[in-house]
TrEMBL record, chains A, B:
Residues 29-319 form the Tryptophan synthase beta chain-like PALP domain. The keyword NAD does not apply. One of its GO terms (biological process) is D-serine biosynthetic process. Its cofactor is pyridoxal 5'-phosphate; Mg(2+); Mn(2+); Ca(2+). It comes from Rhododendron simsii (Sims's rhododendron). Belongs to the serine/threonine dehydratase family. Coiled coil: none annotated. This is Serine racemase.
Length: 333, 333
């Protein structure tokens, strides 16, 4: 065992204890999502693939686990005035739903150019939409204003120990459902998902490998791992709209120490993997959700001798929130 | 309990014993498909809906259960020369795969105008495609010729006790996964699926209701139930290409006695239900697969006082084999 693969307590923003606590806290609210497989895809990949279907999670993505854990970790006084986040993505819907379940207001700051289906999701789950301009400054200013006016608590979509712990519950379920896994492939963006997954999985089975899948057009995690420090990019360019965030100061140390490698894939491969999810698995995934399959089918992965012996691979299908019309156009390109 | 709801042994082509035997026979070959739910859809329906995802079954539909049971029920001498069927639908792929697993030839007679994706499915699973003209006479003549030349065994897609028993294993799983069900809604075509589901479900829980969902443009089962005898139609007209067959002499008595009612729905409602499956459930279903959801959302069902107290409803999402391009056009109409 490599030293870097070992999980030591209290070193990171979350650990196996906080993840098990999260499981108890959110267990009655979340879906225990199924793991499915396809021999047709196994034949294509040359390995056994086990897909953890977080696209079936409430809110349509894994984000609900972390949001739910964060919201229900607040004591009554903290929670009384509600919660705030700025997000145009899956965390916005997830936090809306978690706040609704707690019976407190969820204020969601959304840039005016956000996709229609994401805004609808927020409204569907009872979130209070507050518009901002699309630049970061406007989003932060709006957040500050909302915090002052409401006394609500700001929750970060990924750079938060409670969120990381919630996402880690995926591994607790997955390794019960598929204890034979040699490796788990997880999409990486801000690092909340993969941090939780890696902390829990390596605590349960130190030999398991955790690999990140990242779009070429937003490969800050690959660059960060290579540089040994957080790298941010001046701009990102990928169809995977959920994977454009950068690592935070709480997720970075976990990604640095516990993620065994980052596999980068082109958007074209993401779209092809999405099509396989639809046609073979019969599961609706968003581009970010399909990237794990794209990674395992990539030449980089197939031809790397280091990964030759990974026979049983878990893939987290992280979400399924996609505008079908937009999606269809990408298939037809 | 109504007398007509009671299941008596040896009266029909299958019974709970043959269904339990089927479960033992096919258990290692099939997927135990997950049951998923959505509070968003529950709110729309005004009831708790539990979706049995047979679209994730091998071959992409429930048909593999029956095909597998039929093929593995043959003794070695019977099986030696292979199996034949004429089908352009899901049974063709299912039988191809079952034959491959048994290590025998699977001859599939397919009309020349069959959808491309269905033919590809047959080939993917190792079936031997034999073309016929699209009329019934040509298909039967071709089948006779293949039987004479090969000595293979003809297997019927639904009018066969072994097939019905295989489909019945769905209820065994579903009532373990969701024992609280008050009713199960099942697509009806030739009646093989609903016969197996009804026999097993009512044997386990005589109080459970089994409802058929049928397209208005192929409503032979509704007409048959009303007339008290098998009615066939001069033509059918529905987007649900899997639901155009008519009841057989083995399925009809079961449908007559054990199916509590038939709910007919327009194609427009089927397309709308498909869209909900994609957008809310994140599951890819073919039109036939979505009809159960369309039925439970129909005014006929909602407004019928007889069904008012059905709070927990199982819906069989029967299959997910759909040409995505064709599908998309139907969404955009």
């Amino acid at each position: 065992m490599e030293v870097k693969g070992q999980v030591t307590a209290e070193k990171y923003a979350a650990d196996i204890s906080s993840i098990r606590e999260a499981q108890l806290r959110i267990g009655s609210f979340i879906h225990r999502t199924p793991v499915i497989s396809s021999e047709t895809l196994d034949a294509i990949a040359g390995r056994k693939l086990l897909f953890k279907c977080e696209c079936f999670q409430k809110g349509g993505s894994f984000k609900f686990r972390g949001a739910c854990n964060a919201v229900f970790s607040l004591d009554d006084d903290q929670a009384a005035n509600g919660v705030v986040t700025h997000s145009s993505g899956n965390y916005a819907a997830a936090l809306s739903l978690a706040a609704k379940l707690r019976g407190i207001p969820g204020y969601i700051i959304i840039p005016k150019n956000a996709p229609k289906c994401k805004v609808e999701n927020v409204k569907r789950y009872g979130g209070r939409v507050i518009w901002s301009e699309s630049n970061l400054r406007s989003r932060e200013d709006t957040a500050t204003k909302v915090l002052q006016e409401t006394g609500a608590v700001l929750l970060h979509p990924y750079n938060d120990g409670r969120t990381i712990s919630g996402q880690g519950t995926i591994s607790l379920e997955l390794l019960e459902q598929a204890p034979q896994l040699d490796a788990i492939i997880v999409p990486i963006s801000g690092g909340g998902l993969i941090s939780g997954v890696a902390l829990a999985a390596k605590s349960i089975n130190p030999a398991i490998r955790v690999l990140a899948a990242e779009p070429m057009g937003a490969n800050d995690a690959a660059q960060s791992k290579a540089a040994g420090r957080i790298i941010t990019l001046p701009e990102t360019n990928t169809i995977a709209d959920g994977l454009r965030a950068f690592l935070g100061d709480l997720t970075w140390p976990i990604v640095r120490d516990l993620v065994d490698d980052v596999i980068t894939v082109e958007d074209k491969a993401i779209v092809e993997a999405m099509r396989l999810c639809y046609e073979i698995l019969k599961v609706v995934v968003e581009p970010s959700g399909a990237i794990g399959l794209a990674a395992v089918l990539s030449d980089d992965f197939r031809n790397n001798p280091a990964w030759k012996d990974y026979c049983n691979i878990g893939i987290v299908l992280s979400g399924g929130n996609v505008d079908l019309d937009v999606l269809w156009d990408s298939f037809r390109k």
